[in-house]
Records
---
Amino acid sequence: MAGAGGGGCPAGGNDLQWCFSQVKGAIDEDVAEADIISTVEFNYSGDLLATGDKGGRVVIFQREQENKGRPHSRGEYNVYSTFQSHEPEFDYLKSLEIEEKINKIRWLPQQNAAHFLLSTNDKTIKLWKISERDKRAEGYNLKDEDGRLRDPFRITALRVPILKPMDLMVEASPRRIFANAHTYHINSISVNSDHETYLSADDLRINLWHLEITDRSFNIVDIKPVNMEELTEVITAAEFHPHQCNVFVYSSSKGTIRLCDMRSSALCDRHAKFFEEPEDPSSRSFFSEIISSISDVKFSHSGRYMMTRDYLSVKVWDLNMESRPVETHQVHEYLRSKLCSLYENDCIFDKFECCWSGSDSAIMTGSYNNFFRMFDRNTRRDVTLEASRENSKPRASLKPRKVCTGGKRKKDEISVDSLDFNKKILHTAWHPAENIIAVAATNNLYIFQDKLN
Amino acid sequence: MMLSKGLKRKREEEREKEALAVDSWWLDPSLPAVAQAPPAVASSSLLDLSVLKLHHSLRQSEPDLRHLVLVVNTLRRIQASMAPEPTLPPVPSPPAAPCVADNLLASSDAALSASMASLLEDLSHIEGLSQAPQPLVDEGPPGRPTGGSPPNLGALDLLGPATGCLLDDELEGLFEDIDTSMYDSELWAPASEGLKPGPEDGPGKEEALELDEAELDYLLDVLVGTQALERPPGPGR
């Protein structure tokens, strides 16, 4: 099992060296709240990279075609489309403001020239169509080039309009709005492998939707107790299995994962499998439950494993073994002795995400001080890297970072007490096929690639 | 830090850069260092912090349910470690604590608010235990329906004959579900100020007690009323 801290060895199979590629976002020290990135997601091909922010905007980057003239650089990601997905809303019935922050974006598999994605805030999910327009018609019979209508009686000849090229325009339009199905805050959405349905999960319920139908959804999980006094656990994340369209999992604030099969019953309150690691009595504390709360769950691409992220570690589970994970990777074990301070400043409630590499051989998750961690499952090596403007020369290699936990601090090490807990990397994404990663550091998006030999 | 209802926390205010001190300030000094064994009993500072967090969470216009549940569960653990005696009153039924809930919450989920309020009531007894000799703050309104009678009615009985007071049967019903075991506790100093809030412990304490003054005034009025019926000054008056 991989240990804590950075071993100084590159991770990602075959001794990868990670290099800076690009950074997007403002350089200002003063961060506007609305610009804080709240979700990052590659599409199925990896050619598009979407980000959502607290201001309700979605920015999509597209990878440019590889330039034969510059063989050593991979295609860069440039802005493709920007649109306002969600606006702040006011719920008049409850006198509550509904935040426009985008909690999750999930792409649909591409079926035609247009791209589709689902974006959600706390209450409403929207299906967006992003399409290109690079031609326009000219030579209409009934109207001028200006658009003014022509007098039909003055038309003496007919012509066939012709398509002429125009500057590429990328349009985003909302095709479906799935609203009013969630009383509590939506934390997850997941597209089914059938490409027709998807699930949305809030703190207490999970709903199943058909992409074409917005006025109805099926409730498939409901953990709301009859008596709210008995509420002790909430749903924290949910995901569909990548291949089995009847299987999904959801995680809880108590560190458990339930796998459900929709074929067994309409309401999946009874799980098919229950994953929980027994608590280690020697490390029990008042904060045990909080740090066991799972903040993200992701199936491997193969569908054989799933990964969960809790406050201090990432665990890989074999779907066939419910009693304990097959791998546990410590993300920042040096924080265990600081839990009380982290409880005081609420950092202990931060929700970190995690992701698999395309081949499932490596996993990645974020930490504080703009550090992020990678674990190679084959070589068992791990590395800590930093997303910072200082290391942002093109193709500059990232130097492994190390946190000093006590005793004499070596050169280049950083001590635990010097970590900046405002700089948290909660959202990361890995290209589905290549070693390209996107890391969201507050309001900046970093893109790193492996070094091309 | 008081935030008005519905105001979102500002990042800059909440998350100031701070170096993390080693976590020892919250430990009971008599217990061994935390590195190896977590303390069996939490200090009152941790309790205060958790209560503050609960209050703060409940004051949000729409509480983050996960945060709330985790804080409440942590509070329960702390409570369990600090007060293992079984004489604690059970959590009163929801209709018994509407006033506190109203004061604290804007949530439309009344049952949730009531449950949190009842937990807070529970904790108010613990606060009295952990910070002796703090006077008991009974957060509940006095005029509760008698439906919620706790099993420790025995304590109330003790109060009657033991102190020689003559309680009118009707009025006894009013006090049925107030836990009077505090009055019998050794930590209770009879000379203290009774039901008025005790010396301020700091802004946190102030915050927690401020809301109870309305209830306390009402309770006082009722007690003053019954005093006229020849009830000798009870504990704390």
Note: The longest helix of chain A spans residues 339-344.
---
Amino acid sequence: MDESATRLLQRIVRRTPTEKLKATLEKWDRLTAAQRRSVDFTEPKWALIEKLVDACKENEFKMKHITELEMILVIENPNQGMWYTFQLVDPEDDAQSVDLLQFQEQFKSHLRELKRNVSVKIKKHTDQAVWIRIAWGDSFSRPNHLKPTYVVHQLQSPYIFVSSLTSKLKPLLLQALTFSTRHLAIKDANLSGRKLTAIRDLLMKEYQQVFPTKYPSPLAENNQTLSNLNIEREHAEASANRHRMAGEAFGDGTLPELQFAVYKMETKFKDPTNVAMTERDEPFRCVVKFSSTNLLESLRHCAASGLASTPVTPLLSSIPLKGRNYFVITDNAPGAASRAQQPQI
Amino acid sequence: MEQTNASVTRTPLDSVAVKRKSKSRSYRQSYRSCLGVASRLGLTPARRLTTNRKAPESHNITVNPEHLALLVKNEWQLAYVTPLHQFRHTQLRSYARHLSAFVVAEKQQGLAVEVSGLQNGFKASMTVVQGMSEADDDPETVLIQIHSKPLFSRPDDPQKLVWSGWLTCINGNPEYLHSLPKDFTCLPLFVYKGAENLSSLVKSWVQRTFDCCFGPLELSQTSLQWLAALWTNCHAESNIQHLRMLWTLPSAPPLQVTYAVDPHDVWELWGSVRKGSWGDGAGEARWIDLEEVASFMQSLKSHFYRHFKLDLSAGILNQVSTALGSARFNGRIKISNSAYVITTLTLLTECALLKMPI
């Protein structure tokens, strides 16, 4: 086992908590039974590292085996690092019939044409997604396995999630992806976050949705006793309305955990009491960033408790509706309300 | 013309609040109650919320540039100090010796073996910083520094600065300063930075030696809004690069809103809010009214509300920052531009004076 593979293995073992390491090694299933028995997971980390390095050396593993281990680890724990979303557009006629083998071959060969010395590993995880791990090198150096890029292509959807990609290599990767999936273009979907599961659930709408209904609760009895039940009834009705509208805008139950949303605003300043600013031609430029441990939950709570006026403004409800968390807001036609606009790539 | 503006809005000495058209009633009520409290406790009416301030201008400060550089590049924590009893600016060297001995003794408490004095020796120094105070009544600023050798250093290595603090009073209220008995020196603002254990040691030494007491100085919402307006006002002279405000809304989980405005646009908004003459550039020093600050913040909040239907008043303003400095709700401040040190410290001195329990 050469030195770079050893280094990668050491780094993987060092950075992974012991319980996750145990589960991942079992899934990897490349160590012999004897080796598995000899590894004692209650030992300190440095002892574990030494044992595992020795075991892998015994089995004469190469870099590809170690990268397999890393890939299993990342697939099991995808909620780390920063993920950015892209969307494929303009499918060609045969885009639907691309099968996995064809995609693999075309992607690998196209990427190798664009950049020499890349190491690509593709794995299909359940039936939902295809995971790709890319280690980049160039004509003078071997692929750097310590800084791989991970790409997840959600099947049956045009969405692709990418993590750890430098801006220099971005066009190459996007071109290879577009070509091998038989589409004509790819664009930035303006959705980013730390938790892959959250942004994926948001886009695939895999959380409890609330659909607007005309009669949300069973019709009330007509002969209610009066007195101060009226006040409670007024408040209850308003509160129920708020909760309903908040649910319709953001969803019900557990919501996907987004961390932030950024709005770049370039709308005009309108205030009837401030004539000077209202008559300005230039927009009032500002950038607003919302952040929270669970952004959608916070926004739903704001709407339900009355901190935000209901009906929820389309700027905020666009986050789950369109599956984005970066918006550029401009005024369009004179007098029209501001709406979200997609920026050019 | 500026003078008549100022006299109309200056708070009167008796406790009748001036009836004026105020856009937000909460401000009027809050300072009326503050006046009420002051007169009830029989305090001098000198300490009350200032409703107007001089617009900040860049000053040519005649301070030692090293000291200024030290002040500008760090983020400081704030505290207030009650007046010091029998503090002499002439005896700083002996005070410094006492402080060094105190710090060393406290550090060695509990150690059975006497550690050689030079190894971790802390050496305190106190110097007067000339040129910072503007008004004649202000006592001179005192800078306290503690140097020490890092743990594994060789004997030749120079000592490093591990803790520094400033006791200062800039443009303190002259009526209050005059009302103090003769032996007391009022340096109400304590600006410090360093390890927490050293800070508490210095504070306890000062408390014991000069019979005073310390307390944390948090910046109220009004002070943060003043800072936002004052810094925006400086955009004509030095580019603030952005006005960034951080609000926290009480949802579950709490929602943080960072609202960053383009400097030119926010400067025009500030200009449109100001009453009186505007646009003749930097001329004589002009007064800024509390009402103007209030309507400036209200305009920013209403622009936000128009888009997001979220009222920022429901939350707390935690932090205000521009290229000239940043201030946090929990009492941390960073002054990035040395030209505006005096105005910022004036506002902070006033906050400290207001927060003091005496």
Note: Chain A has twelve helices and ten strands.
---
Amino acid sequence: MDCYTANWNPLGDSAFYRKYELYSMDWDLKEELRDCLVAAAPYGGPIALLRNPGRKEKPASARPVLEIYSASGVPLASLLWKSGPMVSLGWSAEEELLCVQEDGVVLVYGLHGDFRRHFSMGNEVLQNRVLDARIFHTEFGSGVAILTGAHRFTLSANVGDLKLRRMPEVPGLQSAPSCWTTMCQDRVAHILLAVGPDLYLLDHAACSAVTPPGLAPGVSSFLQMAVSFTYRHLALFTDTGYIWMGTASLKEKLCEFNCNIRAPPKQMVWCSRPRSKERAVVVAWERRLMVVGDASESIQFVLDEDSYLVPELDGVRIFSRSTHEFLHEVPVASEEIFKIASMAPGALLLEAQKEYEKESQKADEYLREIQELGQLPQAVQQCIEAAGHEHWPDMQKSLLRAASFGKCFLDRFPPDNFVRMCQDLRVLNAIRDYHIGIPLTYSQYKQLTIQVLLDRLVLRRLYPLAIQICEYLRLPEVQGVSRILAHWACYKVQQKDVSDEDVARAINQKLGDTPGVSYSDIAARAYGCGRTELSIKLLEYEPRSGEQVPLLLKMKRSKLALSKAIESGDTDLVFTVLLHLKNELNRGDFFMTLRNQPMALSLYRQFCKHQELETLKDLYNQDDNHQELGSFHVRASYAAEERIEGRVAALQTAADAFYKAKNEFAAKATEDQMRLLRLQRRLEDELGGRFLDLSVHDTVTTLILSGQNKRAEQLARDFRIPDKRLWWLKLTALADMEDWEELEKFSKSKKSPIGYLPFVEICMKQHNKYEAKKYASRVGPEQKVKALLLVGDVAQAADVAIEHRNEAEMSLVLSHCTGATDGATADKIQRARAQAQKK
Amino acid sequence: MAFPHRPDAPELPDFSMLKRLARDQLIYLLEQQHEVDKLYKVENKPPFSSSEQLCFLVRPRIKNMRYIANLVNADKMAGRTRKYKVIFSPQKFYACEMVLEEEGIYGDVSCDEWAFSLLPLDVDLLSMELPEFFRDYFLEGDQCWINTVAQALHLLSTLYGPFPNCYGIGRCAKMSHELWRKLEEEEDGETKGRRPEIGHVFLLDRDVDFVTALCSQVVYEGLVDDTFRVKCGSVDFGPEVTSSDKSLKVLLNAEDKVFNEIRNEHFSNVFGFLSQKARNLQAQYDRRRGMDIKQMKNFVSQELKGLKQEHRLLSLHIGACESIMKKKTKQDFQELIKTEHALLEGFSIRESTNYIEEHIDRQVSPIESLRLMCLLSITENGLIPKDYRSLKTQYLQSYGPEHLLTFSNLRRAGLLTEQAPGDTLTAMESKVSKLVTDKAAGKITDAFSSLAKRSNFRAISKKLNLIPRVDGEYDLKVPRDMAYVFSGAYVPLSCRIIEQVLERQSWQGLDEVVRLLNCSELAFTDMTKEDKASSESLRLILVVFLGGCTFSEISALRFLGREKGYRFIFLTTAVTNSVRLMEAMSEVKA
């Protein structure tokens, strides 16, 4: 371990930089990198190469080849480039490959070389051709910036939501700028370009000349510029071999360096880590790599091969034909622990643990030393942290062992950090594996988040690994396993060589009833791939009908959608389908469909009753539902029609419908009503007053009350009012008028069909005992007692009851005996009862 | 006199939680979301408000939407701009949004939902307060509320644990149950770990038993409902009851100590009980005499308030009783009851028919007459054609031709039908059964099915022994069975079914009854193997009445519970009675 710091290179007094190998590349490249158009995605993303980029003089047979590799050089895709000449390649934040063609068309490919879509950067670009293009990342997504042949810039800050912006003209720009870059400040994308000794900043409104503060004199041209990963810093390389480093706002200079190399560097990128004070820039020439920062010396490396730099959040990746390396500033924790002769608590703890393993008592000494200073918690923390930054599992383990050893001597040291680090490292080691080839550092991983990492694994179709990670980290199913299975299923439905049945079965077998898996999403994907039948099969597995229906509608399986909606019992859903059907089908077909779905029909009827009365009528018509049609018109006769003629006409239609429905009764009743309406109209004309809308009964009553006895009789005859009711009617009306004389005459007109008890009752209701008594005497024997009781003649009632020898009647009278006055009567009944019992 | 519960009767769950939940949500909606400061009742006239924002709290009905649309459009015409918010309770229907859209105001209003579906009216009574359910479902075949019922059940099961045993009868019951199950499955296992608090659930469609709901009620609570109309668990006692010149709104629930003791009593007992109570009260007041100062202080501070409260309640209920007596004797209540009993028992049908005819002749009450006709029809499997025609004619001539539609409604709902010759019926039946085999059609309540339904009341009554054999006088003070709620003449069919199923824990052996009820495929049992259910929870039974239940049924089941050591919890779409049932079916001129 003595040589552990062998690859550490100091830059100034305070920082070390180290470079280590990630992978030895196995990609068997035939060309030199310099002959290819190269694009590597950040966060350990894939590498795209375009061999033989647009050499126009070459014959068509030697078309360029676009190849995509993982960061470890595992081939992912290879395709013959058949489109136009390509200017630039780049990866979007979603790991989609953006290929900028000379004509301004951007083609978007997936990780596996699958064509996704294309878009154009506008007419202006098309006319003037693309001179240069950059793909850059902002907080909204990925942007494309283009320099056209007319030396104008066009950019879109987010290709997901394409809005082209043409940047203002740079005054007096005759040739292409010597170098340019995109910057992102305050959520706005800018372009910084260098023309000779001048720098210009372009935003969407204006072009302004800028000067970096403290720039050394004598600069006649800028050869290279670099913006840091987070857009905070800017570095400029001048033709004098001078490097200026400052803030991206160009307000402050951080440091400068003179490397005395005048040759233009191939690449220049920032190499810094978040929250570190150190600033350094990596400059690459053909065979030389230089790390410069705020120090008089620089670190120099020799490049054996043609190499390519990829800026990362916390360092720089450097890959060539044979290797893939990572260059970064040594993190503080690692530095503390491993710096030669470090007495930091972490360093001591690591030492203690090693001694402990050797069973040496030195372990105790070291431990004591830390404990005396009370620094054991920091020591453990340092070891955990440092482990995170180590690339090699052996080193990670040894640091974690030290941490775990130190933890034993601490009371109540929260274990979360330790456990989480172990888990994170396990995940990181798994994805760094050669076969997977995602060389994420711990900081990058934290920045990226596990969700995004899982998405990327899914994107690489590494479903089993993604699921294992979810299970290992115990992520909730909905966020984790289910989501991945759903992605897998969506991938599965795109395999067009497998039959619908097999795909559906395979998916169901794997997914089963996993919570959170939406079969309808998968079905939607299948439909998107043009596999309607498969989509329907998959929908069968969807337990929520609510999810099935919208897709079925989209697939124009409206009738199936309707029955699914009905099955779901959700009326809202049924209604949605209904309205859809209504617009989709012609009226006849729509009605026919409804006819077979009574539930939908009644729902629609309800709606029509309030909103579309005419449609309701049509519905009944088409069903030959004459009964309902009749009812419909009856309702219309009093709800919709105002004029009497209209009302009669509505009733006539109703009557016809009722005849058709073989409902003679209703038809007759309706005709009667027509007759009544006409008659009432006549009565109103002749007698004045209000008759319309009265019932037959009330019409007759009104007539009697207004003394029109003859007309009343006539009406009663016309409408065949039964005698009984007519008597009740007259009796009530006359009593209401208190026309006792007429009442008596009426009572004597013939024998009452309702007896005379009602007369007694009604008179008593009007509190006319005198009249009541008259009729009481005429009441038949069966009801005599009741009548007598009604008029309050208890004594006589008792006599009659006794005479009838009727037990029930006697009890009835008894129950009416109240107070002292009836005492004698009560006795009389009791005696009679006793007598009756004796017999 | 009030029957005490058996000592081992299970405790009722605390339903006040439902109230709190609903209240908090509403307050949140009104205050936080919409900043409402004043409430108006939605009536068919424009509200007097000059405020910048109108917020409507409405049932999701098309009629209400049109009202709102008219209002908004009127504002628009007047060039007035306001904000409009519509809060739908218990949920929003797509049809409503459609109407708003068709009326061109969808963009002007913002919608919200207040998921308030269960109002605890009492410790054991939850009401969804959806009186429209009955007409919507049983007449119009509109199933939109079934989802609401399922949601309500789901809410209960999330709050009070899963339901291990479910039984049900009726198409709506079956559909609600299925929908509820689906909801439970979708929301994976929130309730899985919970111990069930409610051991049994029984769902019952109102159309399984129309008879009980059509009878005059004679239990005190039912009578109060029939006479004064209980609304949302409270009643307006008019001046004739309060013996002052003011009306008084009184909450009727278990909190009211006096009411709690008489609510389930046959009316004939109530007066006696109240006078006894009055005497006791007097005696307690009288204790004052001969108290020393300390005792007196104690009395005033502790007992007096309670006594006064009791006194107030007592005088109210005595007033109510008097008022009921007056009304009921005026219309010859005894005669009416006698006729009803005759119909239930199936004798002297001719006399009963004549009685109904006379009832119309005398123009007593349109609703009452209609009710008696329905009762006659259901108990007799329809009216004989001659009576059917003549009664209808009498009725139409008396109360107006629009009732032609009422009769059509009643026929469709199977409440008032004509006895048809056998062959037509079977043809109908086969047509219906064909419909039922079709899976989708099986889920519908189509008008046809009720047309063909024979009520079979007589046969059912015999099978289930609904008419108790009377040996001597039925002692209403010490009831023997649930028949006491109808003076000992009839055991409510719905309650008998529930009793029988609970006894068997299934529908086994009731096949014939189920067939007679026309529910052959609509009676179900759903038991989950749940050994976590305590014996206590297994005696707690939630009865769900779809389409409403009457206070008589509630009293009958409370009685059954006391007998068997169960506790019943009632969930109903609304508390109903014969009048409400008939009004729901009646066609009225707007």
Note: The radius of gyration of chain A is 50 Å.
---
Amino acid sequence: NNIIVLDYELYSFLQSKDIKKKGKFNKFQQGLSTIEYEVNKYLSNMPSSTQTPEQIDNVINALKPYALTMTEVFQLINLRPKALIDLTLIIEECESRFTEENLEDLLTIIKEQLPRDDDDEEDEEEDGEDGEDGEEEEEEEEEEEEEEEENNEEQEYDEMDMLVDESSYKKDAEDDIDGEAGDDD
Amino acid sequence: MFMVTTIKDTVKILPRYFYKNRNEAIIDEINHKYSNKVLHNVGLCIELLDLIEVSDGIVLPCKDGSYTVKVTFKMIVFRPFIGETLIGKVSNSSEKGIKVSMGFFDDITIPASQLTPDTTFDKTQNVWIWNFNETDKLYIDKNEEIRFQVLTELFVDTGPMSKKKPFGQDPQESTKQLNESAESELVVPYSIIGTITQQGLGLTSWWE
């Protein structure tokens, strides 16, 4: 009964709470203040700090042809790898499942859908090499892996429904008692 | 690295907090009890996410007049899965290995056997050095950002001692036992053993 959460989701949750309780130091809640502060500090240095719900929706859709497991997709979003070697850490049996071109395309997808400020320096080197080839590759993969995708899609992407409930983070918790039961199942 | 888990618990709100809105008081109590604490076999609790179900409350007039409710709620927990790649900072180095911290969680150890192959420990500088090749040596310095993978996790139940003491035990005996357990190594309820053996792991500056 455990739902894995994207770093980004927790970060936005903490941001919305800070705004409400600003300036209210509560000695009773020392554990809470400490951990909120530390987790917020940690996540603000991670890629999740600049992500938005739209970017995440887009990157998940763009990654569907690759038929990655949920944990792989989550790690890709949380860690936002920039190099091939980073992918070998995240994707199991990377070399047997994908060719080097597939992986390069995957990196491009991530870079495009989850942009970061430090990308500008690297962009000057890569200029449209993978442009056309990239699209062809993706189409081929879609045909091959469509069947697998249909079977796996429901299981793997159910947890993504959490993103839809984004707005509930920002309401007062009081309002949510009636509405929340069973929403995330 | 974070997940949401459903917990059921009984919450007691003291009369002095009756000025609060009921749900607010319940949330405060739960956060006070769980935030920044480790739940055995669950993980490090961060914060309450949402209340799911709150039963009708009971006030026990003969005790302290507290309002007692049974609550089902969702809690955000830190618990990376085995094999997950995480980023932290080197906090300490010793012969046994290195300790890594993530700010909100410090009990991450990378034992000497799980360091990048070909690393040696320099006792004078108290630092591990990766002998990358004959000419290049890379240092694993303190406060450097490091990428590692979770190898195993260890939960230790640090609840109160459950050994039943025989009736009428000498009070000196029991204090002696308490002192002994305090002197022995501090037990950590939740710790992670990491590894940086795979290519791509280690200091992030190495792979940029």
Note: Confidence is low (pLDDT under 50) at residues 122-185 of chain A.
